[in-house]
Each structure stands twice: as C-alpha cells, then as structure tokens.
Amino acid sequence: METRLDRYDGARDKKIIQLKQLIAESEKIVFLGGAGVSTESGIPDFRSGQGIFNQDSGLEYRPVDIISHSFFAKHPEEFFDFYRRKLCYPDAKPNKAHKALMRLERRGKLLAVITQNVDNLHQLAGSKKTIELHGSVNRNYCLSCGAKYPLEYVLRTTGIPTCEECGGMVRPDVVLYEEHLDHENIDRAVAAIEKADLMIIGGTSLTVYPAATFAQFLPHDRVVIINKSSTYLDLQAMLTIHDSIGDVLDETIPKRAPKAKKSSEGKL
Known about the structure:
CATH class of the domain at 1-43 and 93-134 and 180-257: Alpha Beta
Number of helices: 9
CATH topology of the domain at 1-43 and 93-134 and 180-257: Rossmann fold
Order of helices and strands: HEHHHHEHEEEHEHEEEH
CATH architecture of the domain at 1-43 and 93-134 and 180-257: 3-Layer(aba) Sandwich
Shape: elongated
Largest sheet: 6 strands, parallel
Low-confidence stretches: 1-5, 263-268
Radius of gyration: 20 Å
Oligomer: single chain
C-alpha cells in the first residue's frame, strides 16, 4: 500500500534509488523487523484486519488473552490447542525479504537482523546474525528437567505435550505477554544499533515495546522505514516507503554483488 505522495511523479522509484544509495554507502547496517516481514510467507500478523487478534480463536477466549503467561498457566490445554492452530506454520518458507537480508549479510554489510518474529525464517534463509527478541517456536523445553524438543514434537502430540524423560510439561521457547524478554538479547540488539551506520526498520507498526524504542540508541538519524502502514517514526526517518517489505528489499539489494571497479593505476 503506497501513500498518495509515493504515487506522484515516480516518487516510489526515486525512493528506491535513494535506498540503494544508502545501502551502498553503508557498511554496518542493522535491520529491525516485525510480523509484516513474514506475512509474505503466508504467516498472518497480529493487529491488521485479518491478523490473529482479529480472528476467531475457536475458543471462548480472545486470542490476545490466550497468548499470555497467566492464561498459559491456568489453561494449558486450551493454550496448546490455539498455539498449534494459529501460531505454528511449519511449511512456511523464507520470502524475498528474508533472502535479500541474507544476501546483505553475506556481503559483510549487515551487523544484525533483530526480529520480533518466532518463525525461524531468517535462519532458514541463511542468516547467521539473527537476534530473536521473542524466541522461536522451533525451540521447546521441559519445564521440569529442561530437556529440549523441536517443533515437530509439539505438533505431533495432542493436548499438553509432556517430556519423554520426566513427564513434565513441554512449553515453547517464546515470550508470552506478561513475560520478560531475555536481557542478553536486548543488550545484543542495542549494542548492534549503537554501532550501526544505517538502520532499516521493516514490517512493523512499532507498537510493541521495547523494540518500538530501539531507534533511540542510534548515534545519528540514518533510519529507513519500510512498512505498508504508518508508524510514529515516519516523519522523523531519513526515508519512509509504504510498500511491501519483500518487494522493496528485493529491488534494492541485488542478487549479485556489484563488480569492483578496475584500477587504472600503472596505466599510461
């Protein structure tokens, strides 16, 4: 979804050119992404009209209440029923955004991908420098003995998944509402942002904290926003593009690294 201004006089094309230039002249880029990065892989976001929070949970509870720590503690069977149906997408594949960021990392220009998503798609695309603020559905562990289990184990069970070692409850390694984010991940994210010479924020409405405030740790104003809807940072950013994150990154990060210019030294 473009803004009206993006449709005037080829404004979008000019913004794409500007973003290409910003990426070309930067060597320490940090990307902060949200649910909009994964919607193009068929995973719904949370707050849009078709998002998870606006869908029928299939239970007598609201989706936003189900994914809280207190609900998980009181109604684990209902939690896992919803969790398997609405939050796990084992067949999802990385899209153009994930692949473009992987290319940027392989060229040595990307310091970190900071993601609020729990789907593991950045890693599946090949990214190694991913910081998962909210955990991952691919990691699960026993609350009693700590034994680790893959997503497949949770999906093939019914009711409350239990540990094969001790019989304890197995829960996903994701951050639910009312739970604290891992401080080490926050510290790693902030440290990367403080070193960045460009920050690209994409596929997020910037309404979830603390990620919504991460741009304040930049020592400059080189921020690019790529999102279909508006964010509170749009007017403060160096560049704002209201469009598909996958399309924009695919256009601005070429599939082949640019050839180095031949040196003319030594020629007459």
